[in-house]
Amino acid sequence: MRNYIIKRLLLLVPIILIVAVIAFFITNLMPGDPVRVILGNMATESEVARLEQSLGLDQPLIMRFFRWLANIIKGDFGESLYLNAPVSEVLFERLRPTLFIAVMAEVMGITSGLLLGILAAVNHRKVLDQFSITLSLFGISIPSFWLALMLMFVFSVNLGWFPVSGYEPFAEAGFGSFRYLILPAVTLAFMQAGLIARMTRSAMLDTLKQDYIRTAKSKGLSRKIIVFKHALKNSMLPVITVIGHNFAVLLGGTWIVETIFVIPGTGFMAINAIMRRDIPVIQASIIFVAVIYVIINLFVDLSYAFLNPKIRYH
Amino acid sequence: MLFLKKYKKYEHPYITTSIIILILLAFLSLFAPVLTDYNPVRNDARNRLQAPSREHLLGTDQFGRDVFTRILYGIRTSMEVGLAVVILTVIFGGVVGIAAGYYPQLDKVVMRILDAMMAFPGIIIAISLAAIWGAGKLNIILALSFAYFPKMARIVRSAVISIKDLDYVDSARAVGAKDSRIIFKYILKNSASPIMVQATFNFALAILDEAALSFLGVGIMPPAPSLGAMVTDARTYMVVAPWLILAPGIMIVLAVLSLNLLGDGLRDLLDPHLKNTLKNREVKK
Amino acid sequence: MRKEIKITAVVVLVALVFSLLLTANVLAQEEDRYGGTLNAAFQMSVAHLDSDNSTDSLITAMMNHVYEGLFEFDENLNLTPHLAESYQVGEDGLVYEVKLRENVKLHNGQTMDADDVIASFRRWLELNNGGQLVAPYFDQVEKIDQFNIRFKFAEAYAPFLNILASPVSNQKFVVRAEEVVDEFGTDVIDRHVGTGPYKYEEWVPDQKLVLTRFEDYTPSSREASFFAGKRTAYLDEIVFNFIPDAQVRVSGVQTGQFHFAEEVPRDQYPLFEANQNIDNVIIYPDRMSMLIYNNAEAPFDNKYARQAIAYALDFEELGYAMIGDPQFWRLESALHEEGNPWHVPDAGEGIYGVYDPEKAKELLDQAGYDGDPIVILSGQDNQMERQGAIAIQDQLEEIGIDVELQLFDRPTVVERRSKKEGWHIHLSPFIKIVPDPQIHQGWTGTNKWISNWDSEESREMDQIFAEMLREVDQEKRYEIMERMQSKLWDSVPYFNILDYSRLHIKRAELKDFKGSWQPFFWNTYLE
Questions:
Q1: Where are the beta strands (DSSP E) in C114-165?
Q2: Measured between beta carbons, which residues in chain B are less than 8 angstroms from residue A289?
């Protein structure tokens, strides 16, 4: 077991290295000139050259790559071209709303997904099952940006239950800041719930077919105990896997909902950075997302191996 | 043959429904020029933002173009992009997956790279690539294929590995059959199922992601109709012309829904074991 | 006798009490006006807040509350001394002597004097592109005494004072505290000490700018009229929120989250009219949509080809496609609108707004156009640019001209347009409100970024332009203006398609708001 953990941790290194390479080259291969955007249309060639030099953008690509790599190992992600602050600082500031949205979406998704999945499995082939299948299918089929706009239209513009956009940080508004995050989280939760419901349902269906369940039934155990105590626990493994693997997708989803609801999180920051070629921020955002995904996956795999000693990485 | 036999054996509400919807969509997109007289890109700005009427079933957009027409052609675009992405993903993913599964030396290197690629949500890779290569249908197809093929490669690789050491393959090898023959005869046949299932889900994903990319402005170039771009355009007019945003959104949902249904149905049909084998940690999006 | 006295006394008393009550009421209303935090929604965010170091007009618009100029424009575009008390122009325009107001307080408590103005001016001259227009003609600035300054020119430059107050982009000259100018030099300023009715509080990039009332503000004694005259800070605090999405800006005002939103979709005008809580603010057509040619690349290095496109387009249809509701746009051929002293009534006659595809094709033949696709380069983020490009492509293709449409995000557009090849047509919104034709945003001379224009015709234009610069006599200058307009419509290095209005909206409880070319929030209060 310990060897497995060590092996996986060691594997992180080459993966993150490759991720860094990909992040750097993707960013710096994008056409578009941030310097001219900063200086405006009337900038002269000499002004452009001057700014390029002070930003270090006139160096050859390979050199910039190694300099950047050396810096990030030290934890220095450079300074944003537009936000006038070190990237690591900006990333840290924007982390909270994104995490809140992601966690809220995940929690909402898990609770409703589990519920829906269990209901479906227990009522296999009956109306409730069909209903749950259909609902979860819709969940994974609706484009998140469209859903966000629909929700905004109905609940914010027409009903006025939630603010349309923007964000007040926790420090200022306390729990009031959650008002701004509910619709974005719900948008993302739809898809999570759909995925989790589907996985739960199929895992439960398989488990419920097993012999030991039949034994428990014949023993006369109540349905509730069978479902929750035995079946659910043993179905959790694939569900947890699905949750873990979809966390990356969830993070990707925050980019879109943050943009639509104007929440100053890491996703909005990343999209803005791409739109105006804020190179240090783009690089950092890409690495950030990838690293989180890799770490979460590691977690999932480890807990997986932990919970099911039968499966091991070859 | 086995496929059809299995099909007739059980009831398949999912597959049937989804195939019906998909045939309908295919019909709409193929016969778009016949079904509507209007040109999807010709402007008629003096007639902008008209509500649905007899002349314009779904009204007109901000350029006076007939929305119904654009929806039909937009479906066609989504289908084209989805199909192209699926084909490319299957080819690339298949080749890489088979190579990795069959030749263990390759496997180590390839898997590391694939793992790293899969560390990014597909949409982010696609956005970045689209930003680099520029917008446009071809670039979107390439960008999405690039984002999806690692997953496909992985699936193929798993299938290959599970087959590779089976008895009948070993005996084929012992008898001196060439690698390529083995690959084609046994491996492809057995990985066909997971490939088909994943391909269907990729089709759905491609439609969603193309819409998202067009929404963000890095997708299909105007004036070509794209359902996602139509949603973007409609945002500004949402309150005065809600039909502009409802129609394309519903279309996207319909297309994606039916494809997901099909994928589910196929998976149930082809290999019930695939559903949630602990080894196969499949991701539906 | 006593009875009369009594009655008179009572009447007087009543009158006194009445007028006291009235005054108290008025005073109380004035008092009542004070207070509140204004939330305004703007569409773009800024990279920093230093107007000398950027061409972003939003920086100036916001910082107009923090900084003031020596001169400002009023609502009739009359140049008005603001931080200046008075001025004199001598020696045929070679010397300007400016007297400053003497008791104007800076945000740091000190009194503004010539040192502050001179330091700010030198910086403006060096960095700001308005200053760079002036610099080639300028000699030096001298301090006469603590409140008097002399500006000396090597060559007469008629637009000088107009540029100082310019409402275009970032061009305006503002007075900053000397200590800040010394501290930052040419680097981006992030500590702000000005003389304006509001002072800088906080800036969160991509989110908001917060300003709070400057309690010791010293207003001008002239009558308030847009940027000139007395500014009263009723609001305690002003928060500029950066909200790129138009619908979100709109929804914010509908729900009361914002009191003001700029640039909202004009198509929603009827909705706002119907809403009791929202007022429409239509800014009169102060924007032009310019069609800009790449004059260095075939086919548009030939003036016949350039003229051809003007004939090939149905301008009215473009109006509907680009802007929409006709109450928000109008066709206008001159660079200056009717009512502006520089308006030339018959500019572009015979070509502007004339839809003649046949003639267009003839002209293209005459120019030797080989049929290669024409590349239209435009930005995605601006509605006019985007919809205009799509509409123009459609119109040109309908008459058989091949067009390649390139819509990109702003950084890519900026990069591609700065090159001499690869694009043919570009659309850009220009500001129409220009008090002086020679600080016209589009007219900073030929061979600049907008035109890539370098030919016999461009040199002729340069000459006309130089003549105008030297001519101090208004009437003679206007004649030169007429020549310039007719030359512009003959060689057409670029042309304006139409003028359009922007629509802002505000909550009904925001009172006394005046819609000008840049939104400002002094003299306006919340009920």
A1: 138-145, 148-153
A2: 119-121, 124
Residue C438 DSSP one-character state:
G
Domain that holds residue C293: 286-501
pLDDT of residue B266: 80
Burial of A62 (0-12, 13-18, 19+ CB in 10 A): exposed
- How many other β-carbons are positioned within 10 Å of the β-carbon of residue A50? 14
Is B223 within 8 Å of C393 when comparing Cβ atoms? yes
How many Å apart are CA C427 and CA C291, to the nearest integer?
5
Q: What is the CATH number of the domain that holds B58?
A: 1.10.3720.10
Same domain, C269 and C386: no
The reply to whether C3 falls in a domain is no
Confidence check: pLDDT of C392 > 90:
yes
pLDDT (average), residues B121-145: 82
- Please indicate, yes or no, if residue C56 is contained in any of the structural domains: yes
Segment among A3-12, A39-48, B218-227, C331-340 with least mean pLDDT: A39-48
Query: Which residues of C are less than 8 Å from B236 in CB distance?
Result: 246-247, 265, 267, 383
Are residues C327 and C401 located together in one domain of the fold?
Answer: yes
How confident is the model at residue A314, as a pLDDT? 40
Task: Compute the count of residue pairs across chains A and C with CB atoms less than 8 Å apart.
Answer: 97
DSSP strands (E only) in chain B: none
Q: What length is written for chain A? A: 314
Please name the helix (run of DSSP H) or strand (run of DSSP E) that holds residue C151, with its range, or none.
Answer: strand C148-153
pLDDT in tens, C79-126: 899 999 999 988 788 999 999 999 999 999 999 999 999 999 999 999
Q: pLDDT band at C449, cuts 50/70/90?
A: very low
Model confidence, pTM: 0.79
Crossing angle of helices A144-151 and B243-270, in 10° steps, is 130
Three-class DSSP category at C68: coil
Does C69 fall in a domain? yes
- Residue B70: which domain range? 2-284
The verdict on a CB contact (< 8 Å) between C321 and B223 is: no
Position C450 pLDDT exceeds 60: no
How many structural domains are present in chain B? 1
Instruction: Determine the residue of chain B that is closest to C321 in CA distance.
Output: B45
